Amino acid sequence: MVYELFFSYYDQDPENDEEMIIAAYSSYEKAESARKKLLEQPRFKGKEDFFEIHDFKMNEPWWDEGFWRATRSYFIIQLLRGYVIEKEQEHNSENHNIEIRNQEDRLVYQGSMDCYYDHEKFLCLKNIESGEMYCLDKQQGKIQYEANTYEDMLKFVRQRYQIEIFGWKDIFRK
């Protein structure tokens, strides 16, 4: 395990905002000790709530960005084969625009979707409002099929991937 000591401070004045990785430690106790020492410095005095200690397992395949990845993400859903669904933070909760990235962090889809079905070989997406559905082939990293009914999508994945049935998961959990 690695224990990352992270500081993120946000103020009314964005000029004072600050995010930084202080260091990575071999134990939680060492990270906590460093945090306590930093709180004695004038720069961090009274800002104890803005320190975080994150623990990461070494040599895990999901941790491919290194010690830190700058992102404005509202959430990230980890999918099979290193794919992710990412929603950027914004104030409009009705906006269901997402991005899907592959294991190389390359954008493979961007659009408005509400539901997904994740499989080792493919990813199905569904827009509830329009009824649009897409099947993204993970090996090719692109949309292979579009449908407007569950039956059409199921017929495609049966023929292409030998899948008998699947169910949708909500991307925007309440």
Tags for this entry?
elongated, 5-stranded antiparallel β-sheet, mainly beta, 4-stranded antiparallel β-sheet, 174 residues, Lipocalin, single chain, 12 strands
Describe the protein:
The protein has 174 residues and is mostly beta strands. The chain has 2 domains: 55 residues, no CATH class; 98 residues, Lipocalin (Beta Barrel). Helices cover 13% and strands 38% of the residues. The chain has 2 helices and 12 strands, in the order ββαβββββββββαβ. It has a 5-stranded antiparallel sheet with strand order 11-10-9-8-12, with helices on one face. The model has no long low-confidence stretch (mean pLDDT 85).
Question: What's the gist of this structure?
Answer:
This protein is mostly beta strands.
The CATH architecture category of the largest domain equals: Beta Barrel
Topology order in helix (H) and strand (E) letters: EEHEEEEEEEEEHE
Main sheet attributes: strand count, strand direction, barrel closure: 5 strands, antiparallel
**CATH hierarchy, class of the largest domain:** Mainly Beta
Strand content: 35-45%
Q: Which stretches are low in confidence, meaning pLDDT under 50 for 5 or more residues running?
A: none
How many angstroms separate the termini?
32 Å
State the strand order across the main sheet: 11-10-9-8-12
Structural class: mainly beta
Indicate the percent of residues in helices: 10-25%
Shape: elongated
Number of helices: 2
Quote the CATH topology of the largest domain: Lipocalin
- Give the overall pLDDT as a whole number: 85
How many domain units?
2
Radius of gyration: 21 Å
**β-strand number:** 12
